[in-house]
Amino acid sequence: MQILIRQNTSGNNILNKKRNDMAAKKKLKTVSLDTMIDKHIGKVGTSARDAFEQELKLDLLGYAIKEARLHPKANPQSNE
Fold first, then answer.
1. Closest by alpha carbon to 55, among 63, 3, 30?
2. Per residue in 30-61, is it b (16+ CB within 10 Å) or e — as a string?
3. d(CA 23, CA 37)
4. 51 in a domain, yes or no?
């Protein structure tokens, strides 16, 4: 896409009116997280999706262990 810029008399940059009109007409589409994961990682049951979910579970477990070590009094099972 080519962007045309011109200077007005006060020195500020103004984008070309045509580009501004195109941006005003473009609407954002809202999709769910599950839809995005299905599209970019793969459907449930595929090897890519299984690997992604396994890696995510390991990351979340690691984060939970780190938080438990940093804040031991917040852990209700602590014997201290």
1. 63
2. eeeeeeebeeebeeeeeeeeeeeeeeeeeeee
3. 27
4. yes
Residue 40 falls within a domain, yes or no?
yes
Nearest to 54 by CA among 42, 36, 70, 66: 42
Question: How many domains does the chain divide into?
Answer: 1
pTM of this prediction? Answer: 0.54
Asked if 48 contacts 41 with a C-beta cutoff of 8 angstroms, the reply is yes
**Structure confidence by residue, pLDDT tens digits, 20-49:** 666 667 788 899 999 999 999 999 999 999
Per the domain annotation, does 23 fall within a domain? no
